[in-house]
Amino acid sequence: MSNETEDCSAALSRRLLFQRIFGTVGAAAVVAAEAKPAAATIKISKAAVAYQDHPDGEKRCGKCLQFQPPQSCKMVDGPISPQGFCRIFIPVQQTARPMAAPAVG
């Protein structure tokens, strides 16, 4: 009876060991997969956003939140002119500058 109990304990220990190993490996794989950013970004065609290589008044790619100098866009595929314009233009918010204190004198 004692041998039977020892065999059962040994099998249980091995099972527990394998469960922990596979659980740790699986958790590490999930964490590693989540840590990697997406390698490819899907971009929209110029035709789909009615891109033009000239501005629309004050609206131009160089003043857009999506523009990435010198000639790229986060959303639109292909080379983009800083003087261009498209339908998904989002103006960059200007940061407010603190007013200068009046001179005391």
Task: Give the topology.
Layout: H1 2-35, E1 67-68, E2 72-73
Antiparallel strand pairs: 1-2
What does this structure look like?
The protein is mainly α. The chain has two domains: 1-36; 38-95, High-Potential Iron-Sulfur Protein, Chain A (Irregular), CATH 4.10.490. Helix content is 32%, strand content 4%. The protein has one helix at residues 2-35; strands at residues 67-68, 72-73. Strands 1-2 form a two-stranded antiparallel sheet. The termini are far apart. The model has no long low-confidence stretch (mean pLDDT 80).
Count every beta strand, where a strand is a DSSP E run of 2 or more residues.
Answer: 2
Could you give the order of the helices and strands? HEE
Into which percentage range does the β-strand content fall?
under 5%
Largest sheet at a glance? 2 strands, antiparallel
The number of domains is: 2
What is the CATH homology-level superfamily of the largest domain?
A: High potential iron-sulphur protein
- Low-confidence regions: none
Radius of gyration: 30 Å
Instruction: Please give the share of residues in helix.
Output: 25-40%
In short:
This protein is mainly alpha-helical and 105 residues long. The protein has one helix at 2-35; strands spanning 67-68, 72-73.
Observed structural traits:
105 residues; 1 helix; single chain; elongated; two-stranded antiparallel ribbon; High-Potential Iron-Sulfur Protein, Chain A; 32% helix; mainly alpha
